[in-house]
Amino acid sequence: MLVISINNADYIGDYKINFSFSDGVERIIDFSDFLNKARNPMTKKYLDKNLFKRFSINYGDIIWNDYEMCFPIWDLHEGRI
Question: What does the alpha-carbon distance between residue 30 and residue 14 come to, in Å, rounded to a whole number?
Answer without folding.
Answer: 8
